[in-house]
């Protein structure tokens, strides 16, 4: 009897405080054929009439929470778990063991992965899912009254319909729940009814399923009443659009809700050509009584001045576009001055350098466009001769001169050693607009150095040279016999004469001329004098070698910064795809330096993805419209490497060499870098696999 009383008291306590006194780890209810059919997986019930599946706090943060975490995010999660009936402990902002068990139960009843971690999926289900499952309360009878069924016995269940009705009898929602044997508390789910209804019946009902599968009560009904809606508080605000003279351009009326709102100026409401001069955004506050502060707003606009875009074209005399520009001109008269910096170097303006454009009040420009015409520079090829006083040619070259006056200077290194310039060292050459040079050629005259002869040649040549030297002495006697007899020891220090005067003049004349006169004089003079001049003069020139030729090349032209057309362009060391190409030499974009063009190819400098720098040639097809590349004017001075050297395509970052050139490699010197005297731009005819190449060599490796 005492046992029965104890059980009755226990049941009463459970019925009156099922939520507060539910155990922290309520087992999952038994299922029949599928887990989803059990009441613990299907019903979604609330605790009180005012609660709904919406989050307890506005916009909770979706931040993964773990055991041991603390703070407002944990407190928000605990509050929501308590609302749904999963947490029976206190809300303290600490993710402890009770909170862990509540999260695990929530995950189990909502078909989530049970790991005790409140991740994104768990929190989204907890805060935002209208079909979230509330925690069921299973009241299991004491072991003495409900013995554990045998393993072979099928579970006992019952189907219980749950009705959501309005106070007028309208059915708002119906569902059928499958409950297991024992007691289960069903809670009203606010999400099952439309917005605007409030629960007026009990918020929870306990259903008991007997051993025979009979539920008590057999159905559950939750009753809701429609709530009376209060219209929101609003206020009307007048918005004025004014010009600078306070003239009304437009007026609008806005209806704003209670609270703070931002009103933004709408440019579409004013005529075209007006520009806002006041602030664009204004804050308006509507009180609970529907009073707006401020009650009216004003946005001020200014009428823009009339303007027109006038194209400015730079053309050559053939009509080819050199550059295009445009100017935004307002009402009135505007002088437009030609900018010579927009055309390639050397081009000359044809006509006036200033033109006037008039813009009327309607924005019409007269003339509608401006054109400046430029004449391309003229060039002339001027031969430059180096010869001695007898007219014998020592060197010849051709220099291409541009329009204007150019000074050509004699280069001592181009004539044999010892020759002395007799003519002026500089000659000014003028090239007119028709490409005619004055003078048409330049000649530098040099005096040949005195050539030393043997001292004994004065005696033997008096008699034997009259007859026998007519044929054999024409070549040898012109240089060795005229000047050297005066002082043979002074001149040999500059040009050693021992090989020419002793072998050529003495062998040829002594065999063919007379037999008598050559025996006596030739033995005495040829043995004694030749030992003295040949040993002394030959050591002197080795200490003072022939001075190295002077390097004379033009500078690379000034570059312009250009962004080429989109695409990937192969970069070669010379102007053409038959020139040597460095590995991975590819231009894919970015700002580049454009130096000029040659044979349809552009000489450019560009940065590499690895942070380096290269100079090479790409096809002229990459040049954007409106950009003109000036023709390259490079030197052609021949040179021979005095020693091994490295050829590079990066004179800025001192990158790795392209090729290593051996001593004696013939080169052509093309240009110098104006702001970096260390390097010279050169060309190698056969650099790699019989391919020509261009690149940069240190000046120190050329001297």
Features:
alpha+beta; 8 helices; 14% helix; 703 residues; 4-stranded mixed β-sheet
Uncertain regions spanning at least 5 consecutive residues: 15-57, 138-142, 475-527
Determine the fraction of residues in helical runs and give it as a percent range. 10-25%
Quaternary form: single chain
Strand order in space, largest sheet: 1-4-6-7
Q: What composes the largest sheet?
A: 4 strands, antiparallel
> In whole angstroms, how far apart are the ends?
124 Å
Helix and strand composition category: alpha+beta
Number of strands: 41
Shape type: elongated
On the 0 to 100 scale, the average pLDDT is 81
Strand content range = 25-35%
Descriptive overview:
- It is a single chain.
- This protein is of the alpha+beta class and 703 residues long.
- 14% of the residues lie in helices and 35% in strands.
- The protein contains eight helices and 41 strands.
- The strands form twelve sheets. It has a four-stranded antiparallel sheet with strand order 1-4-6-7, covered by helices on one side. It has a four-stranded mixed sheet with strand order 3-2-8-5, with no helix packed on it.
- β34 and β35 form a beta hairpin.
- The chain starts with a helix and ends in a 5-residue tail after the last strand.
- Residues 15-57, 138-142 and 475-527 have low confidence and may be disordered.
